[in-house]
Amino acid sequence: MKAVILGKAASIRVKNKNYRPFYGDSSLMDIHIQKLIKILAPSDIYLSCEDDAYRYAAEKWGINFIHRDKQFTLISTNNVDVTKNVCKDIPGRGDILWTTPVEPLFNEYAEIVKCWNELDKSKYDSLNVVYPQKRFLLDQNHNPIGFGFGHWHKYSQEIPPIYQMSWSAMILSRKCIDEVSYMVGAHPYWYDCYLSVVDIDTEEDWLLAQIIYRNKVESESANGK
Q1: Residue 28's Cα: distance from chain center in Å?
Q2: pLDDT classification of 225: cutoffs 50, 70, 90
């Protein structure tokens, strides 16, 4: 298995979010790479970025750097084209662990790889992480989803879960890439993750993730983990 990290430099809403310091001197990219090299050899990990100035981030950890044309980092570019372009530079025909650094609280890479290795590949062509959520949510017409107003009101524990899609980690077979060319296959396996999630998309997300991450790391350090 190879891993690819989508690490574009030109983030729009949170400037330089992948490479600026996040915890101490470590960037989101540093933290992310350290997680991946616990489960894969550095030679099997590829950082995809449009700016060669960030090649140092790959060299620092001994992983590979692949240059991505700027057009394949734009929001306006079709995701199918992005997937094809990035994966064509990953050698071999093995599966690809497709990752991003923007969910720093996620750390179940070993678990999802183990799960993927045990799956029946005749049934599944990809693995995608989702976060089950039980919330009092309303649809676009303000109708309750999974519960009702009135004396039949349910406790939150009784609400059927809905699922938040995560872009923190996906595993794609080469067949999936060849035939679907997207981060979700035609026959995905949905991996439920019960960790806290903060997908950093705004400066407020950045600050919230920093607080939770710092508390988590310092708590684990104090308890000798």
Answers
A1: 12
A2: low
Write down the pLDDT at residue 75: 83
DSSP-H helix ranges across 43-173 = 55-59, 79-87, 109-118
What span, in angstroms and rounded, lies between the C-alpha atoms of 118 and 41?
20
Shortest CA distance to 145 belongs to which of 130, 160, 163?
A: 160
- Topology (CATH) of 2-130+165-195: Spore Coat Polysaccharide Biosynthesis Protein SpsA; Chain A (3.90.550)
Residue with tokens 């574009």: 8
DSSP 52: G
Which of 91, 17, 92, 13 shows the shortest CA–CA distance to 49?
A: 17
CB atoms within 10 A of CB 108: 17
Q: pTM here?
A: 0.90
> Which among 111, 128, 110 has a CA at the least distance from the CA of 169?
128
208's tokens: 């919230």
E strand or H helix at 188, and its extent? strand 188-192
Q: Are 91 and 45 in contact (CB under 8 A)?
A: no
CA dihedral 108, 202, 51, 103 (to 10 degrees): 0
